[in-house]
Amino acid sequence: MLSLTSLTVAKMPTAKILEDKMTTFEKLLEICSAVFEGEIDISTIKPEANLRDDVNINSIGLLYMAMAAEEEFGIKFKNEDFTAIRTVGDVIAFIESK
Predict the structure, then answer these.
(1) pTM of the entire predicted model
(2) Which of 9, 16, 47, 78 has the fewest beta carbons closer than 10 A?
(3) CB–CB of 30/65 below 8 Å?
């Protein structure tokens, strides 16, 4: 007979495996959901979406998103990196290049 404790322990490796298999895009969606807490419609976030025009993220929002991405992915954004970032895909490409 399985106890609740053994079920919890049995599920932990699976959760870690799923987290490891998450794509950069999926992790970025989680970051946006946490950072913007309902202020933006997560369903509008697609790789080709323009951050300002399509997703309604302003420069301050981009800064908060970048800070969360730095923590999640262990990367650093420099001020000049933001000049090339226009779309969600640009953010993904930047993260994956590090």
Answers:
(1) 0.74
(2) 78
(3) no
Report the 3 state secondary structure along the chain.
CCCHHHHHHHHHHHHHHHHHHCCHHHHHHHHHHHHHCCCCCHHHCCCCCECCCCCCCCHHHHHHHHHHHHHHHCCCCCHHHHHHCCEHHHHHHHHHHC
φ/ψ region of 56 (left if φ > 0, alpha if ψ in -120 to 50, else beta) reads left
Q: How many Å apart are CA 65 and CA 31, to the nearest integer? A: 7
Predicted confidence pLDDT, tens digits, the chain (98 residues): 444 444 444 444 444 444 555 799 999 999 999 999 989 888 889 999 999 999 999 989 999 999 999 999 999 999 999 999 999 999 999 999 98
Residue 85: φ, ψ to 5°: -95, 115
